[in-house]
Amino acid sequence: MHALVIVIALGLPVLTVALVVLLVARRGGPPHDLDATVVAARGHETRISAVAATTSVVVVVALWIAAATWGEPGVLLGAAPFAAALAFSLARAVGEARWPRPTGDVRSAPLVRRGLRDQGGWRLPLFASTAAGLAVALVVFGLTAAGDGRSVERVLDAGRETHGAGPYPGWAIGVPALLVLGLAVGATFVALRAVTRRPPIGLLSAEQDDAIRRTSAARVLAGAQLWVGLGGAAYLAFAAGALLRVDAPAGGLVCLLLALVVFVGSVVIAVTALPSRRATAAPDAQRAAAQGPTA
């Protein structure tokens, strides 16, 4: 049984990564028509997003299956959301490496210097804040946990009575979660950097290429934000429940409110990244359109 669990937990992610390569692999040469190029580029982006999302879900399911018979209680389950974010970002990075490159005797493409902040937009600081805030919360939970690292205690009656409750995300669960969270954040920035560094798509204007690139960046950050946010909300909710059971209402209510904000915010951020970004006219083109035709 243990061998079967290990095969499932390790084999499914490997199969999904192979699926990533197959689905996003370039087939034939790039289109030579502008409209066909836009359609092909957006289709490639959609396939990358779909396969990355599927990969992350498969990783979560595999860890849930493995957690039933292997490892310390709660460790794999606690790390599962962050492992999903890691798998999502790695799958996105693989997909970014498979974008069609300009071909032909003469290659022409607009050269635009892009940075992580330019492409990430407002989602980048939100994701960084969520991950950093969660890391701080896990450290605080670890410092305030009981000796077993899985519960929280409160001393009553001048030290004569101790009231404990769990599960509480102490060091036993928090340390593995912090390690996987750090890997997930690193993989997210790797995938986002791959978006900013990929070659421009032939035949497209700088505005069209930038719109597709911003779509990719938004979906990279949205997927990572969703999984990290769900994991963070779960940790905060468990901590809130334990704190309320040991008659620490202030800390419990704060954790419960933060869990609600993180959960709702992460889901909203993920949903708003689904639509494709549209190209905006360059400043010169906008001025020309405002002035009308000239002789």
Automatic annotation (TrEMBL):
Coiled-coil portions: none
Keywords (A to Z) from UniProt: Membrane, Transmembrane, Transmembrane helix
TM region(s), chain numbering: 6-25, 46-67, 73-91, 124-146, 171-192, 220-244, 250-274
Name of this protein: DUF1648 domain-containing protein
